[in-house]
Design goal:
Low-confidence stretches: 94-102, 104-110
Mean pLDDT: 77
Order of helices and strands: HHHHHH
Helix content: 55-70%
Number of helices: 6
Shape: extended
Radius of gyration: 17 Å
Number of domains: 2
Strand content: under 5%
Structural class: mainly alpha
């Protein structure tokens, strides 16, 4: 990508697999944590109020209960070291509470009202 562009945002597996040697790199999560001391939100699962959240919560909980199995699968698929996959999985693992769900719901409502 950088053969054709001056800069790029690389996300997910490609970011973990990219050869970044010789490049100026800003890890967005690391920069955010240094700046604010807060965790970086890589993604959210948002569910409309009329949709039951249980399948999403089940999926999250399954992933937590089977973390090593998920890491093994990802290692076979990507070729990345298990230690890297474990650290990214642990860093982004969160719990969902009713308060968080409500906050996400309010945020998405506000975004819709702004046209986002």
């Amino acid at each position: 990508m950088l053969r054709h562009h001056d800069a790029a945002i690389v996300i997910g597996d490609p970011a973990l697999q990219a050869d970044l040697s010789g490049l100026h790199v800003l890890d967005l999560a690391e920069g955010w944590r240094r700046l604010t001391g807060l965790p970086f939100v890589f993604a959210v699962w948002a569910v409309r109020p009329e949709v039951a959240p249980e399948p999403f919560l089940w999926s999250r909980d399954y992933g937590k209960r089977h973390a090593e199995e998920v890491v093994d699968f990802a290692q076979r698929r990507t070729g990345l070291p298990a230690s890297v996959l474990r650290s990214t999985s642990t860093a982004t693992s969160t719990t969902t509470s009713t308060r968080t769900t409500r906050r996400v719901s309010r945020s998405s409502t506000a975004a819709r009202m702004r046209g986002g």
